[in-house]
Specification:
The protein is an alpha/beta fold. The protein has 14 helices and 14 strands. Helix 5 packs across helix 7. It is elongated, with a radius of gyration of 23 Å. It starts with 7 loop residues before the first helix and ends in a 19-residue tail after the last helix.
Length: 350
C-alpha cells in the first residue's frame, strides 16, 4: 500500500510514538516486598498486558537505583525526608504496610506462650542479656523453663528498612539504646550475626538454635518461625492480622511527603508497636513521560484491585479514601519537562 508524500512524516512520528509505548516496567528495592510484588506483577500482566520486573535488592539499593534513573520505581521501607526527595527529584507515597515481629528458634519451648519485653529486646541486641535463662527473661516467663542456652542475635547486614523500623522501636523503648545506637537502616551492631535480606535472616534464624531475629510477619509465618508475645509499657500484645490492620489504620501522615506517621490522638492502647510502611519512589520530573506513567498505572491498579493479593501475604493494603486521596495529590505534582501533569486518572478514592 502506498501513501502520499505528505503523509510519510506523520506516519513516521506515529510509529515512533507507538514504539516508545511502555510494555515493561522495572522496579527494585525492599526485599520484604518481593513475594507480594511477584504475585501483583503476575496479575497486572494478566489484566493489563504490561510486564513488571521487580528486583529484591533491599531498600537502600532500591533508593540508589531510582536516584540513578536505572529503574522506573523503587520500593523502600526507609522513608525519605522532604529534603532528600527534593535533592533527588523524587516523589514518595505509601503502597502497603507490614508488621515487624521478633522471631525465635528455641526447640522444646512453646514460644507462642513466651513473653519478651521491648527493653529486654534492646538489651539482647546490646549484649547485656546473652542467655535464654537470664533472670530478666525468666521473670517475664515464670511458667516456662527457659533453656541454659546462649542467645544468638541475628540482624540485617544490608541497608534495610526493616532494620530502620526495628531500631526505631528499640529507640522509643529503651533510653540506653537510643543514646548509644539510635535509629538506622544499617548499624554497627554491638553483638550478633548479620544476614543479607529478609530471606537471609529467615534462613539464619531457622538454622540456628537459640537464635532471635526480626522480620516481617508474613515472612515469619511462611517460614513457620515462632513469634513470642511482646510486652510494651506493661501491656502484653499478641501478633495477629486484625491488630496489625487496626494499628496501621490508626496512623496518620504528619507530612505530605509521607516521611513520618503518628498514631491517632485516641490511638489503640494495645496497638502493635512495630509497623513498617513500604513507600514507592518515582521521578517527579522524568525526561520521558512513560518513565513514570507505567508505574502510576501499576500502583493505581494496586490500590483499586490489589488489596486481596496484599492481604493474602499477611500485609496491610492502603484502603482508606483519605489516604488514597493524599497519594493522588502527590501524583498531581509529577510533571514532564514541559510542566504537564503525567497523572490523568479519574481519581483513586473509592
Amino acid at each position: 500500500m502506498s501513501y502520499p508524500k505528505w503523509a510519510v512524516p506523520i506516519l513516521m512520528v506515529l510509529c515512533a510514538l507507538n514504539s516508545h509505548a511502555q510494555t515493561e516496567i522495572t522496579g527494585a528495592g525492599s526485599s520484604l516486598a518481593y513475594p507480594v510484588m511477584q504475585e501483583l506483577a503476575r496479575q497486572f500482566k494478566e489484566h493489563k498486558k504490561i510486564e513488571l520486573i521487580y528486583s529484591s535488592v533491599g531498600s537502600g539499593e532500591g533508593i540508589r537505583r531510582i536516584a540513578a534513573r536505572t529503574v522506573d520505581f523503587s520500593l523502600s521501607d526507609i522513608p525519605l525526608t522532604q529534603y532528600e526527595l527534593n535533592s533527588q527529584g523524587l516523589v514518595q507515597f505509601p503502597v502497603f504496610a507490614s508488621a515487624i515481629v521478633p522471631v525465635v528458634n528455641l526447640p522444646g519451648v512453646d514460644v507462642s506462650r513466651m513473653t519478651i519485653s521491648a527493653i529486654a529486646l534492646a538489651n539482647i541486641y546490646i549484649g547485656k542479656i546473652s542467655r535464654w535463662d537470664d533472670p530478666v527473661l525468666q521473670e517475664l516467663n515464670p511458667h516456662i523453663n527457659l533453656p541454659d542456652l546462649p542467645i544468638k542475635a541475628v540482624y540485617r547486614s544490608d541497608v534495610s528498612g526493616t532494620s530502620y523500623v526495628f531500631t526505631s522501636f528499640l529507640s522509643k523503648s529503651d533510653a540506653n539504646w537510643n543514646a548509644i545506637y539510635g535509629i538506622g537502616s544499617r548499624l554497627k551492631w554491638p553483638v550478633g550475626q548479620g544476614a543479607k535480606g529478609s530471606e537471609g535472616l529467615v534462613r539464619t534464624v531457622k538454622a540456628t538454635e537459640g537464635a532471635i531475629g526480626y522480620v516481617e510477619f508474613g515472612a515469619a509465618t511462611s517460614a513457620q518461625l515462632d513469634i513470642p508475645m511482646v510486652q510494651v509499657q506493661g501491656i502484653l500484645i499478641t501478633a495477629n492480622n486484625q491488630l496489625f490492620a487496626e494499628s496501621f489504620n490508626a496512623l496518620t501522615p504528619v507530612r505530605s511527603s509521607f516521611y513520618k506517621f503518628a498514631a491517632a490522638p485516641s490511638g489503640l492502647q494495645n496497638s502493635w508497636p512495630i509497623i513498617a510502611i513500604t513507600n514507592a519512589l518515582v521521578l517527579q520530573h522524568p525526561s520521558q513521560d512513560d518513565d513514570v506513567r507505567g508505574s502510576l498505572a501499576f500502583f493505581s491498579w494496586v490500590y483499586q484491585s490489589g488489596s486481596s493479593v496484599i492481604k493474602s501475604f499477611n500485609l496491610l493494603p492502603l484502603e482508606s479514601k483519605k489516604g488514597i486521596a493524599l497519594v493522588e495529590a502527590q501524583w498531581k505534582a509529577i510533571t514532564n519537562e514541559k510542566g504537564r501533569s503525567l497523572w490523568v486518572g479519574e481519581g483513586l478514592g473509592r
